[in-house]
Design a protein that fits this description.
The chain is mainly β. The protein has no helices and ten strands.
Length: about 100
Amino acid sequence: MAGFVKLATLDELPTGAAKEVEHDGRIVALFNVDGTISAIDGICPHQGGPLADGPISGTCVTCPWHGWQFDVKSGKSSVNSRVKVEVFEVKIEGGDILVQVG
């Protein structure tokens, strides 16, 4: 099992912000919802839209390409109950955002 890797800092991800990060060929979308950092697969499973570029309401991000929605905490889709994006464990050390990717 892979360990945690630094993908961003808290300064780069203020409350309400999202950020797309690439690590080892994988796209991860980071979200700061009311001070809680979440990390999910950054590519929408519908047609590959960039989830970090979508608007977020509460914990729900909407893909900017076709409107598919995912909860950034659970990865579950509100559009199709059979669809889910991967959720990654996050921990904060000092000002660093560490994500367990892989």
